Amino acid sequence: MGDLILFTVTLSTALDLVIVRAKVHINGTFKFNR
Question: How many angstroms separate the CA atoms of 5 and 25, rounded?
């Protein structure tokens, strides 16, 4: 049970990092285009 919780937390953290990186990349692209 603990492993499942740890896996879920790790997965959600990884997804958060990916989303943040995507937002930063999109913002940087928009600023660069302007």
Answer: 30
